[in-house]
Structure formats: C-alpha cells, structure tokens
Write a structure and sequence with these properties.
The complex is a heterodimer of chains A (249) and B (936). By secondary structure, chain A is of the alpha/beta class. Helix content of chain A is 24%, strand content 25%. Chain A is built from six helices and twelve strands. The longest helix of chain A has 20 residues. Chain B is built from 31 helices and 40 strands. In chain B, 59% of the residues are buried. The chains are: A alpha/beta (249), B alpha+beta (936).
Chain lengths: 249, 936
C-alpha cells in the first residue's frame, strides 16, 4: 500500500513546514511542501492528497493579525477545493499559524466566530507545555492519545477566545487543554502560556475531522527532542500524526 | 475618484497596554496611568462607503470584540492622543499586505500605511502638558530615525510622497587641492582619508575625467573599513610609546588570524576567510557554514531595526555560501538598564530602550525566518551606554561540495528579493565611522528595517536552485548594496549592469542610490540560464530580476538609461586602495598585588547571581524560538523546571543522519581587555571551548569565529590593545589546534559628545567555537540530576580576580592578576570530552562569570537539588575566574573511571536531596538563589 499523501501549503512567511513534513514522514505518510503560488498555478489539487496540514510560521509577517491573510488565501483561492475535501471528510490539521489561518478561514471551530489574539503577557513566547487530550472528544486525531503529551509553543497570538465557549464545550469541540503535572492549568502561567480561556489549546470542528492547536506537536515526535531528556519519559506526539495517517489508509 | 481615509482600529481582545511602556515612561519621570494602543490605518484608493466598511470588517478588525471608526470621529475626552507612523519609504510589510489583500477582495486600494494612535491617561499628578507628551512621544513611543509623530492628526506617509532627486552629478577631483578632496569626502560622508582621496584623484587624472557621484560612492563603499578591513590589512609598527620600535606586523589578518589557520592546517576546513562565511566538514556528506557579524552603529540609533537587520545580514551570509541556516546566536552588550536619565548623554538612547528594542528586533527576525536562536549572552557595563554592541551569528548546513564559486563570462546577474529604496544608503561607510551626538539626525537613511519573511523565501529558492545546479556563484546583498555584491562577484570578470532593470519601491531615486541601496533581503546569483531560477522564485512568491551580465573585460559598467554612471577598472576598484600604515603602542600588563578584601561568602554569591551580566536571561530567551526545526538537543535554558542555565548549544541539522550534533560554544569578555588584551583572547577562546565541550563537542575538531569590537585604530594605544588581542587569538588557536574560519571586526566604536570628548567602547572580543558531538546520546544534562552522585572539579581550584565579576560587585578594582593563558588547559578539555563521550559524565557546568560559587548555585537550581561541596572560603577559590575548569556530576559507579580519565580532577562533594547548597561553612538555599538570580 502506498503511503498517504499530505499537502503542506506554504505561504510567504510559513516556516514550520519542514518540521511538520518530518512529523508526518515519521508517521508513515508522504508529506509535500507546496507554495501557494504553485497551488494557484495548478501544480497540484487538494483532491490529490489524503490529508491537509496547515503549518506554523508567520504567514505574511502576521500583517493584519496572525493567520488572517493565509486564511483569506485559503478561502479566496481554494474555497471550492476546501469545501469538497471537507465534505469528503479529509482530515485537516492547523498548527499555530495554521490554526490561526483555519480560524480566520471559518473552518475552526466551524460553528461560531472565534479569534486567536495576543497572549495575555503581550509577547512572543517559546516554552514547553503539557497538553491533555479531552476525554469527551472523539476526533480521529486524538484516538491514539491515551496520556498527556508535551511539546513547545512558539507564538505571540495564541489566546483562544470563542464567542460561545459553553456551546463549544457542550458539543465536545475542545480537543486539548493545557495541564500542569497532569492537572488542569486553571489559567496559571506559564502552564497556560497565553491566557486562553478554559485552558483551551486546541479545538476540533463539528465533524471532528479538522483539528487546530497552538502548540507544536511536530517538535516532539522523537524522544531525543524532549527538553526533559534524561529526566522524564513519554509525552511524545507521534500518535497524533499516526492516527490520522491510519484513518486514511 | 481617489480619496483618502484615516481609520482607528480598536484592540478588541488584543493586548492594549504594554506594561514596559509605563515602566519606560516612569523611568523618564513621566507619570501616566495607562497607554492604550490603537492601530491607525491610512488608506488611499477608490472606494464607496460600503466598500470601505467591507475592507475594514474583513481585513482590519477581529471577528470577536473588534471595532473600527473614522479617526476624526473617535474622541478621547480627558486623555491625550499621540499619533505615530513610519516615515515614507521605510519597509512597511503591513501596509503592503493590506493593499494586496484588498486587491484579493476586488477593492481598489492603491496605498495603505499602518501607524499607531496612543491614548494616554495622566497619572495621579494630573494633566500632561505638551512638552511632557512630546518627551513621551520622542523617548518612549516612537523613534525619529524611522517614524514621525504628531499631537494632531498625523498626515499619511504614503511612499509616493518621496521628493524627486537630481540626476547624476560629477565630483571635481582633478586639479583640486587636498582640502577640497577632504571636503568632498566629508560632504558625501564617504569616510575616506586624504591618502585614499589622493589615489582617486590620481587615477581619474590618468583617465582625464572626473568621477561621477556613483563612482565616488562605489569606491568609498568598496574601500570602507566595513568591506575592505583596512585596519586588519594595514602594516603596523608596534612601539613602546617612547619612540622605540619593538616589532612590525604585516597585517593583523595575515600575521595572526590567517596565519593561525594556515599553521593549524586542519583537514576539516573547506573554506576559510575567502567567502561570505567559513565552511567546515560535518560528516561524510555534509559541511557546516558559520559566520558571526556585528551591527553596532545601526542598533545604537534604531535598536529594533539595527538588530533585526543584523540577524538578517548574518543569515544571508550563510545563504551566500549555499547553506541552509539552522541556528542563530546573539551576544549583546548594553549600558545599565537602571541608568538615571539625568546621566544620559545627549544624542544617546537610554540603555533600557536599546536593550528592549534590540531584543525585540533579534526575536522578530529569527522567529519569523524560522531559524532557532540557540544561544548567546548579554553583558551589561557602563562602558556600553554610548556604544552598545550587537553580535549575531549563524550556522548552516550544506551538502559537501555543493557551493559553486566561479561565475563565468556571459552569466546573467540575477537579483532575488525585494525592490530598492533609499534604505540604508551609505551603510557601509556609515558603520566605518565614529558616532557623534548628531549622527541620529544625519544618518536617518543609514538604518533600515528588515522583512524576514522575504528572507525565508530566499532560503527556499536558493536551496532549490543549488540542488538543481542553476548558478555558478552567489553572494548576499548587504552593506553597499549591489555596488558591493556585484562589485565583488565581478572583481575579476567585470560586469555590465542596467539599473533600469532594478525594481524600485518608488520613483525619484538617483542612480547612485539605486546602485548602493541597502534594501534588505536580496541575493545576487550568477546564472548561465536565469529562466529556471526566476521560475523557482515565482513559485516561492519571491521577486527576481536579471539586471545585467558578467562580461570578462575586467570593467565594472553601470548604466542608467543611455548614460554610463559607473565605468571603473575592477583592478583599481579592488586593489587600488592604498595600504594603511599604522602605529601601535604595545599594551603593557598592569598586574599589581591584590588588596586584602574581606568577603562575605553568602552575600557575595547572591550579589554575583543578581549582577545583570550573570543573572538569568530566561525572560529574554523565551521571546526567541529555540525549538523550530526540531533538532535542538541542548537549549539555552533546561533542567528540571526548564529555567536552568545551559552551557553551549547542540542541534541535529535537518537532513542529516542524527548520529552527530552540531555544537556551538561562545566566549565573551568586556573587562579583561582593559588590563591585558592578550590574556583576554586566551580567556574567551577557553570559555568558548568549555561551553562546546559541555555541549558534547570534540575539542580536537573545533573551528573558531572571531569578532572584535574596538575603538578608533588610529589611536596607537587602542591599536596596541587590538594587536595584543589578535596575537592572543593566534597563540590560543595554535595551542587549541582550532583554526579561525571567518570573523568580523567592528572598529571606530567611539561616541563623540557635543563638547568633543570621546567615549571609546570597552574593547570586546567574542569567540564562537563550532564543533561536532559524535555521541549526542552522552551529552551531559543541564543541571544536577541524581542525589548521591559525586561532584568533581576539573582544573585548579583557584582562579584569578583581576577583571573578575567579584570586583564589579565589590565596586572597585582591587588588583591582582587577570586569568593567565594556560596551555595545559587544552589537555583538560580533551580529557573531559573523552569522559563525556564515554558516558562517564551525568551533568557538567562551566564556572565562568562569577566563578565556582555562582556556578554551583546555578547548577543546583537547574536540577532543583542541593549540593554539599568542600571548598575553602577563599575569594580566589570561590569567585576567581580562569581557564580549563568544570564542575562535573559523576555517578558513584563511574567515579574510578572518571578519575582515571581526567587526572587533574578531584572530588569536592556530592549532590544531595533538598534545597541546601553548602559551600564549605556557608549554606545557601535554592529559593534565595532563585530570587537573586532571577531578580530584574
């Protein structure tokens, strides 16, 4: 069986495309980084792929708010392809700037307005965080995660604000929350690094096929990447990518 | 019909008051309760009311909580308003993107700029008068080098507002006297001395014509200290200061730095000194490229932009040897952050503002270009108040032998990257002159701000072009612009350039301005066939153009329209600069007996931990992405809680096997050089090597980068120190068997006050050691790990106290000797590295600034465990600084093997449970240590 193909679209300023490709490759997929210009020129169609992974970075330098213009590109240039892929339940993931772009594009949370805005402390931060998969969320992306994962964040605009957070929780749309030593962070800094309400680090759309999260699971696929190397084991994230790859095989 | 609008966009859920602004205002004695930041958007285009609303709703506000209003309609009663915005022509990514996005929505917008409206609420003291608000605007809210401000509605700064400039002019040099020659150099800010101007006069007299403005600027840039390293190539007579010649130096570069490289003759060196960056072997299939740069003058004037483009420049140096950038380093030197504004000299930004701006600029560039910032240092000293220093380094990876360096006649000159404007015109000559109080006013155009996302695109284009073999030579476009990059590539072949093919941001640029523009984020390639490179550039969303050809006739020809504005023989341009002859007074060491000073061990250790140079920089490092690319093994901060100080950096380069890591160690010192620059060179080489060893490097295969920041080399005593430092670098490199592969000197770091008095910089040397960890799995962890493990000390217990941080904390120079060069330390590094590679070392830490007591405290805190150390309470033992020492954690079962592997090591204690750090009779606790070390 051939490895499933993952499309990693690259906007000007996208920069964690290589990291994301490495993670999907480690999970057994064939990942392809394709610039938006090439997609516009028809080099590939979204339908040629089995997974869409929108990577992190600073698309368009975060001009006019992180992810806004990347989201505008996705909707404006590839809206029909995206709708078709979504209807066919293509797994999609947006990480960091990719999450911001999918929120701007209206794909996440998918049923209400939301924004990823300035961190509570008002600045970019890079640090490791612990994330708990939400028990009530049955997204394919989380199906292999039976314990908390750990990975770095690296963002300035990651505070998640939804118009109706109660409704989001009620439908099981919260995917990942920030933890501290296995317990809810309860807004405490730095475990919840950006001040997101209800410690929300990631959400899924109503179909569960689209996941967005601010932290970077693509940077803890291997044990050697762990900042706690020699002090802790586990917490790796390969299962996140492997579950999606398996789901499309 | 075209109209203009000014809109204010509210913060919504955004972070609307930056506490650092309030702190900065308070520092200047301005009492404000709140400063709210709104975005101020100026638009020009053809839009009806509905379209304007659609544009603002779709592109400007947040969907939850956001709002916008016409600026004139938004009143702020009982508050004061300041509006700020970029000067026309300054790189404005947001404005550019807004126009592009409006086009995507089908809206007819032709110009946009985004500034700020600051709404200021007075503090308890009451109203703010105009003078106070002006002070706030000038010192806190904006920087006049790149921005404008107004208490009323700020007029939009659209780029097309640029005034027209005159056509090419001729500078009369033939037949004029020496004073007139110097007047030309001064008026054009060429930074050329009389001998150089005479050489120009003579050359053009032979040609029988006067030079154009473009030719004068081209020569000045090519011959600038920044590009030609005249001081490092000068013939130097070293005297004893009393009229007796001691010895001659046939160029510092040739006699010391390059000579060390030639003598060491390391087999792993692929390329040293000749290219944008050094290149050394990494494994059988890959090389690494390394370079460190300085960007001091621009950072002093516009800290964010200066540091920002400093990172951008050194990353381009790496791209310029066909390597993929994989790690950034930064070493920063600032004046005291708590300096009383009353003591701030005129024409100088406050050190706190410089610090905040520089750090933000470095973070912005590295984070956006997507290269991890893996290490560095911040040094605070009053000597840096008027001359702050910014060193930025970069390492890259490339397949062995994949960097082509031979352009061919007939190759096209391809420029990749953005359009040019008046950005940084004159930067190369500017950075080679001393700064004066009025420099900020006249040098405005010498500073630019970067656009890192374009440089990220350049990396993608160049890597693809390299792998496809599409070019024969490449260089970056930095100081001096096309004049420098094309000029260097064409130094033997010659080139024919048509400036009409160079994309410009706005009309009205003089030919020489287009030719010398330092618009950032550009690379120049020589390509037999430019078409596939331009196609790659289009694919990655990067602009590219062909601007001429390499000819083979040895003449640099630059045309604008029908006019040749530069027609210079390449040999004269590159070889015609008269060699400088300089005199140095030999530096004499000033060791004196150490005064007997009583020292309280606990209080002194805590005071050292709180010294700004020693204290934790975690808050800064957290604003840099050190994880991107997923290869980072040793971070700047690690340990049990992620807040412990690491030594050195290690990362697995993307695309390599994972069996090896690239390692970086850094040494820097700002104090010892005032006493003994020769010893300082040894000291910083040793520190860089120690850090590299702890991060897993094999010291038998290290490569070095040197960065000097010195004062005016025409001052014989200043030059004497520089000569001693270079000699020390040479001798240390030989002792360590480590070649220099690249470097950068920054001279003329002198600030001249309005009254004519001068502050020279603290002579500063930064050494970067880059190597390879062949057993990454055995790299010691950051912070102590296991109670019951033994603690060993490698090297002598005593260090030196002259120029130590102890004396900085005590507030006076109490004499003694600086750390003496110790060739025997080399063996200790090798033994230590062998023990690490054998898996005998659990954790290790480098006793550097502050000495053993500080190192022990940091190490224990990093592991959140106690230590019980048997050390005598002597200042030289606890606080002395010196070469070849390590604190090492060894598991009991490996103690015998470790002792055998490192004969100079001795056991001094153990790791214990709890939070007590016992050093002899003194006990410190982890909470006290943490409080001191993390104090602001």
């Amino acid at each position: 069986m051939t490895a499933p193909r993952v499309l990693i679209p690259v906007a000007l300023g996208t920069n964690r495309d290589g990291d994301l490709a490495d993670a999907f490759e480690a999970a057994g997929a064939q990942a392809e980084r394709v610039p938006l210009e090439a997609l516009r020129d028809g080099e590939h169609q979204l339908a040629d792929f089995q997974i869409l992974a929108v990577p992190g970075g600073f698309s368009y330098g975060d001009a006019l708010g992180a992810g806004r213009l990347f989201g505008l590109d996705l909707v404006g240039w590839f809206g029909d392809q995206l709708r078709a892929a979504h209807e066919q339940q293509m797994p999609m993931i947006g990480i960091c700037n990719g999450f911001q772009a999918l929120v701007r594009a209206g794909l996440l949370p998918g049923d209400q307005p939301a924004v990823l805005t300035d961190n509570e402390r008002g600045r970019f931060e890079c640090r490791w965080v612990e994330l708990g998969p939400e028990p009530g969320n049955d997204s394919i992306w989380l199906s292999d995660l039976d314990e908390p994962i750990r990975c770095p964040i690296a963002h300035a605009e990651g505070r998640f604000v939804a118009e109706a957070a109660d409704a989001l929780e009620a439908r099981g749309g919260v995917a990942l929350r920030y933890l501290v030593d296995g317990q809810p962070a309860e807004g405490s800094y730095p475990a919840n690094p950006n001040g997101s309400a209800r410690d929300i680090a990631g959400v899924t759309d109503p179909t569960g096929r689209v996941l967005g999260l601010m932290p970077h699971p693509e940077n803890h696929v291997f044990a050697r990447q762990d900042i706690q190397r020699s002090r802790r084991t586990g917490g790796q994230t390969l299962g996140l990518f492997a579950a999606a790859v398996r789901a499309v095989c | 019909m075209t109209d203009q609008w000014a809109l204010v966009v509210g913060p919504g859920h955004r972070h609307d008051t930056d506490s650092s602004l309030l702190a900065a205002a308070s520092l200047f004695g301005i009492d404000v309760a709140a400063i709210t930041e709104h975005r101020l958007v100026h638009l020009r285009g053809t839009l009806d009311g509905d379209q304007l609303t659609r544009l603002a709703d779709t592109l400007l506000i947040d969907p939850v909580g956001g709002w916008w209003k016409p600026a004139a309609d938004l009143r702020h009663d009982a508050a004061t308003v300041v509006e700020t915005g970029l000067r026309p022509g300054v790189t404005d990514r947001e404005g550019t993107e807004l126009v592009r996005a409006a086009g995507q929505l089908g809206l007819d917008l032709d110009a946009a700029t985004i500034g700020r409206r600051w709404v200021i609420e007075a503090g308890a003291a009451g109203g703010l008068d105009d003078a106070t608000v002006a002070a706030l605007a000038q010192r806190v809210l904006h920087n006049e080098v790149i921005e404008r401000w107004s208490l009323d509605a700020l007029p939009p700064g659209f780029v097309s507002d640029q005034p027209e400039t005159p056509p090419t002019t001729i500078e009369t040099v033939i037949g004029v006297d020496d004073d007139a020659l110097l007047a030309i150099s001064s008026r054009r800010r060429l930074g050329m001395n009389l001998v150089e101007m005479q050489a120009v006069r003579s050359h053009f007299a032979d040609l029988g014509r006067d030079p154009t403005d473009a030719e004068m600027e081209t020569i000045a840039q090519t011959w600038s200290e920044h590009c030609a390293h005249k001081t490092f190539r000068a013939a130097i007579t070293v005297t004893d200061g009393e009229g007796n010649d001691l010895h001659q130096v046939d160029g510092l570069l040739k006699s010391y730095l390059r000579k060390a490289t030639d003598t060491v003759d390391a087999p792993w060196v692929r390329s040293a000194f000749v290219d944008n960056a050094g290149i050394v072997a990494f494994d059988d299939e890959h090389d690494i490229a390394l370079k460190a740069e300085t960007h001091n003058h621009p950072s002093a004037l516009e800290p964010f932009g200066g540091a920002n483009t400093g990172v951008g420049g050194v990353v381009r140096d790496i791209i310029g040897v066909s390597a993929k950038p994989i790690a950034i380093t930064d070493i920063l030197c600032f004046g005291p952050s708590d300096l009383d504004p009353a003591d701030l000299p005129d024409g100088v930004l406050h050190p706190r503002r410089i610090r905040d701006g520089v750090i933000a600029g470095i973070g912005d560039y590295g984070n956006k270009i997507g290269v991890p910032n893996v290490g560095g240092a911040i040094v605070y000293d009053p000597a840096y108040t008027t001359t702050p220093l910014v060193f930025a380094g970069c390492v890259g990876i490339l397949p062995t032998g994949s960097h082509p360096t031979e352009p061919q006649p007939g190759d096209s000159i391809v420029v990749l990257g953005g359009a040019v404007g008046r950005d940084g015109v004159g930067g190369a000559t500017f950075s080679s002159q001393t700064m004066q109080a009025e420099t900020a006013e006249v040098a405005g155009s010498s500073v630019q701000i970067g656009d890192p996302i374009v440089e990220k695109g350049l990396i993608d284009v160049v890597m693809d072009a390299r792998d496809a073999g599409l070019y024969t030579a490449i260089t970056d476009c930095g100081a001096g612009g096309l004049s420098s990059s094309i000029g260097e590539m064409a130094s033997e072949l010659g080139a024919d350039v048509d400036l009409d093919l160079v994309p410009r941001k706005y009309p009205g640029l003089a030919g020489w301005e287009t030719w010398l523009s330092e618009a950032q984020e550009r690379m120049v390639l020589a390509a037999p066939d430019p078409v596939p490179i331009l196609a790659l550039a289009h694919r990655w969303g990067i602009d590219g153009s062909v601007v001429g050809t390499f000819t083979g006739d040895g003449v640099l020809r630059v045309r604008q329209g029908d006019e040749a504005i530069v027609l210079i023989d390449c040999h004269f341009l590159h070889e015609g600069c008269p060699r400088h002859e300089l005199t140095a007074v030999a530096q004499t060491t000033d060791a004196i007996d150490r005064a007997d000073v009583a020292v309280d061990v606990e209080a002194t250790t805590l005071a050292l931990l709180a010294h700004p140079t020693v204290a934790s920089k975690e808050a800064t490092v957290r604003t840099y992405d050190h994880e991107i690319m997923g290869g980072t093994l040793v971070r700047p901060y690690g340990g049990a809680e992620g807040d412990g100080a690491g030594d050195g950096a290690a990362t697995i380069p993307p695309g390599t096997s994972g069996d090896r890591a690239m390692v970086i160690g850094i040494g820097v010192n700002a104090v010892i050089g005032n006493h003994d620059a020769y010893a300082m060179a040894w000291h910083v080489v040793d520190e860089a090597v120690r850090n590299a060893v702890i991060a897993g490097a094999d010291p038998a295969e290290l490569s070095l980068l040197d960065n000097f920041a010195w004062g005016n080399p025409n001052d014989p005593e200043t030059l004497g120190g520089l000569e001693a430092a270079c000699r020390g670098c040479h001798d240390a490199a030989l002792a360590f068997g480590a070649p220099f592969v690249s470097g950068k000197d920054s001279l003329y770091n002198v600030f001249v006050h309005p009254d004519g008095t001068a502050d020279p910089v603290a002579p500063t040397l930064v050494l970067t050691a880059v190597g390879i960890a062949k057993s990454p799995e055995h790299i010691p962890v950051t912070g102590v790990l296991t109670p019951g493990d033994q603690v060993w000390l490698v090297g002598p217990a005593e260090g030196a106290l002259r120029g130590s941080h102890l004396d900085l904390v005590l507030g006076a120079d109490h004499g003694g000797s600086v750390p003496a060069p110790d060739p025997a330390a080399v063996d200790r590094h090798h033994q230590m590295a062998a023990a690490i590679a054998s898996g005998l070392v659990v954790s290790a830490h480098d006793p550097a600034e502050g000495g053993l007591a500080v190192a022990a405290a940091e190490w224990a805190l990093a592991g959140r465990l106690g230590l019980d150390l048997n050390l005598p309470p002597e200042p030289a033992v606890l606080f002395g600084e010196g070469p070849g020492r390590y604190l090492v954690e060894v598991a009991p079962e490996h103690a015998d093997a470790f002792g055998a592997a490192v004969p100079s090591a001795r056991r001094i204690g153990q790791v214990i449970e709890g939070d007590a750090v016992r050093i002899g009779d003194t006990t410190l606790t982890l909470p006290d240590i943490e409080r001191a070390w993390k104090s602001p």
